[in-house]
Structure formats: C-alpha cells, structure tokens
Amino acid sequence: MKKLIGRLLILQFIWITSCQKDFLEKGPEEDITIEEAFLQRKYAEAFLTDIYAGIPNEIYFTDMADINPFVIASDELTVPWPEKFSKLMNRGSWNSYNVAGQIWKNMYEGIRKANIFLKHIEKTPLDATFTENDKRRWIGEAVFLRAFYHFMLMRIYGPVPIMDYDVKLDDDFSQIKRKPLDECVTFVVKECDAAIDLLPMKVIDSRQLGRPTAAAALALKARVLLYHASPLWNGNPDYSNFADKDGTKLFSATHDSERWKIAAEANKQCIALSEAAGYGLFRAASNNPVDNYQQLFIERNNREVLFARNSGLDGWMEKCAFPGSLGGWNGWNPTQVHIDSYEMASGAIPIIGYQANGTPIINAASEYIETGYAQEDEPNGKWLKGVRNMYVNRDPRFYATINFNGALFLNKKLEFWQTGADGRGNAGRDYNTTGYLLKKFMDPTVSITQGRFSLKTWIFFRLGEFYLNYAEALNEAEGPVTDVYMYINKIRDRAGMPALPDGLNKEQMRARIRNERRIELAFETHRYFDCHRWKIAHLTDKGPFYGMNVSAGTHLQDEVFYKRTLTETRVFQNPTHYLFPIPQSEIDKNPSFVQNPGW
Fold first, then answer.
1. Which CA distances in Å does 390 have to 204, 340, 380, 472?
2. Phi, psi for residue 413 in degrees, rounded to 5
3. Which residues make Cβ contacts (< 8 Å) with residue 253, sequence separation at least 6?
4. Which of 3, 175, 230, 305 is 20 to 30 A (C-alpha) from 382?
5. pLDDT for 24 beyond 80
6. 3-state DSSP helix/strand/coil percent for the chain, to nearest 5?
7. Closest Cα to residue 159, out of 596, 599, 598?
8. Which residues, listed in sequence order, are joined to residue 388 by a DSSP beta bridge?
9. Over the chain, what is the mean pLDDT?
10. pLDDT computed for residue 65 by the predictor
C-alpha cells in the first residue's frame, strides 16, 4: 500500500510540474480591471446578465436553499417532509439562527452587482451594435432589478438597508443601517419610475424573453404601493415603537387611508398601459374555463405575463406533485381548508365556518353535499361517476388546480385511499398527507418514468393579479363602485364563474375580493403575503389543519377515507411571525442592525 501511494504521489508531482507553465500563463482577460471590462460591450453585457442570477426560482417550494417557503408556510399546502424549512415555520420552530438566509444573501448580491454595473456602464462606448437605446435599456434593466431585489427583502423583513451605491471593502459598514419602511417604499417607487422611462413596454425580440420591460416596472410599483396601503405596513400599532439604535422609528405609527387611493391609481395605470401595449387576460384556444386557467401556467410567456423567470428544462414540480403511480413523490398536498375555499359553480359559498372539531358548517343554500357520490360523468371530464359529491359542481378553477380522489389525471384514475395505487400504503416517506395533490402548473406532456420534461417559467407578475389589486385598493378607497365589480367579474368570467351579486357593502366586497385572490392566485406565493399584509395570518396560519383520512380505505367509495382528519397543528406567534428575523450572522457582522421585534 505504501509503495502504491508513493507511486501516485510521484505521478501527481510530475503532472503538476509539467502543467505548471500552463497554469502560470494567464490569458489576456485575466488581469483586466472592472473599469477596463466595461470598455468592451461583451463584458458589460455579461456583467448585466449576471445580475439576473439573483432572481429567485420560486418553482422550488421546498428546496434550492429555501428561497420559497411561502406556499407551504401559508394555509394552502403541506408536504410529508418535516425537515424542510417551511415545516419549521409551521411548527413555530424557526429563529434568527436557523432561518433560511439565502434570500438576504442573494438579494444583496444582486443589488451590489447592479450598483457596480450602473456605476460603470457609461464607460461602454457606443457603436453600430450598441446604440444609445441599447444602453438605456440595459440601464433600465439594472435599475428595475435593483428595485425588485429591494422589494423581495422588504416583503419579509420590512425595513431594510437601501443600497444604491457601490460598496468598497474599506467602507465603514457600521454606517449601513435599516431605513424606515416608508423610505424603502419611496426608493422602490422612484426606481420603478426611472425604469419605466428607460424600458420598452414589450419584448419584441424573443431572445430577450425574461428581461424586464416597462410593464414589469409598472407592476412592481403597483404591488409595492398595494402592500404600503395594507394594515401590516400602514400605521401598524405592533411596530409603533420599533426603532433603530439611534432612535429612528422604522415604521410610521400613523394610518394613512390615502395610500389606498395611491395604490388604486398605480394598479389602474399598470392595467391601462399594459393593455394598450397588447397585454391581456390569457384565454386558451378552446376558451374552456378549465383550459383558460390551466394553460395560463403552461404556455410560457403568454399575453398575460408581465414578468417571469425562465427556469429552463425542469421536472421538479411534476416530481413533487405527480402521484406515485406516475413516478412522482406524492408530496405537494393542498390543505382541506384550501379545498373548502372554492365556491360552487353557481357562485354560492359552500362552507361558511367550522366547528371546534373541524367539522364544516355548510351553507344549506349552496347545494354543496359533503356525502354521497356522483351518479354520472361530467360531460367535459371535470369529474367522473363515483367521485365524492364534495368535489362536484365546484368553481372550474378547482379542476385545473386540484387532483382529488377518483379524479382523472393523464388518463389515470387517481387512488388516494390507503391501499390504492397512489395511497399511503404503497408509499414510504413520500406519501400524500391530505388526500389531495397539486395539479396547477403541471405539464401533461411530462413523463417522469420516461425522463421527459418541459421548459418552465415562474411568473412574478401577470395582468390578472393587477385586476384584483386594483379592485381591492379601489374598494378600500371608495367602496364597491362600478370598477370594483368590473375587474373582479372579468377574472371570474374568464374562469366561467358568474358575476358577483349586486348590492355588496364594502366589508362584504372585501371578503369576496380576498377569496377571489385566494382562488385565482393560489400557490403563486400571494396567499402568504396577502394574509400577512392584511394582518390575519395569526388566524389563517395557526391551529389545526385537516385532510382526508389517508391511513384508511380500500376502495374509491370507502366512507372511512372521507373522514376529515387532523394532519398537523401549526404555530404562529403574533406579532413576531409577521416578519422574518434577520439572520443572526448578519446581525453579528454589523452591530448597527436591529433585529425585528420578538426575535
């Protein structure tokens, strides 16, 4: 053995010394400074492209350094994997030491790259292949991304340091402090206004898909102003005494109702200018309500998309959400409370509350039936004969979003009961915990068993969101006026749902808007942030959660499977959990940072 090791060391030494000359001979590109790099278009463009690396790939609900724990941390979804960070959030077991810090790290890395780019891009000379319009667009992209990354931080941390300059290694980092939230909002809005003036409204060259446009900047501005008007950020008494170490208050203690009007105007502007540029609500060629909704998330870069991340060839979603019999992990499980939130096809609300043991309080006028089974197939395939009546005659978006027991999926009838092909008895650690699987986003052309996957995008901004944003802000500002009804009903019409009833008051309309967002924007990360900004997360994200009895049943119509069963009990500390803690490692690096309240 010693002789063998000796021979290997000699061979390694010979290889290193023979190649040493090559290692020491640097190429002409290895010694250029940052200033010199920007004197060439190709290097400047490469630097711009690298800024995009920070855009979070939010199709990963459980992995990729936990950049999107929000879907599972909301009341929409659960998974069978207890070690995931989102499950720590569910159990209330997270803190400043174990909190996922990748968002803080990635966003500020992206911001620093943008600052360096913006400082040096004026050095890049113009020529026939790089015009003044090209330079303006590049600057607009960097300005937008800097604003976008700041907002990604603000939505979980609240007040954050505003970094709009190139930091040097010899800078006094103790001078970097969290800015009051109102200043953060003003900064993002100004950045968006600057980007709007620099960017085109639409991408014309398909090679530029994924790059921001003025429509994306309008969308970011509109969303941040909606958040600014909402209770979490608008005169929140829980943060009235939250200040930095110099005594500067980080939240305004005064509620400003005018913010709703400002938010309504920004969202209406986003809609008007986007539609004038050719954006619109997506509809499938069939105009079938289920297809309209399902295909919206499969047909990449369709006319509704204002900004999305290109995620490449990826099968992660299908692996997490396909049933075991199709090679999936059974893992993305919608909660029963989310299932219950879908209206009947008539527009009636089926479940209006719960008893202490989780038994639903059924709206008798809705014609919702919890028991019994369908007597025939639905003509368009929404449900098959024999499925539980609780899944019959629901909002068409239910059938585009949820896979339920007995549903037809990829020409296969799903079997979620204990002994079924997709049941817990035929799964190990990767089992379906609620009796439901996520169908939304799933590409039916994918085959896990054959290794065939598809190109993916994650949509950050789509026009439908801003219809709902506008309706919400306008209702809060003026009550249920004509435009509130009109924009909500446009969303409902696309989904094949009847218009909202006339005569709703402001509070009733607020409830309907919130449920419409819950359904239309389901699993797109909105629910977590909506419940937080409305300050209802201590109600929605806490307490017992239910599903079907996945540990029982031997056939589709086995009654024991359909018993609502406790799946978990979640913890939400009010008000601590309304904001993420700043990672303790960042607090330790900079003593000027103050931690969020309660952490």
1. 46, 9, 18, 30
2. -85, 120
3. 235, 237, 239, 240
4. 305
5. no
6. 45, 10, 45
7. 596
8. 373
9. 94
10. 62
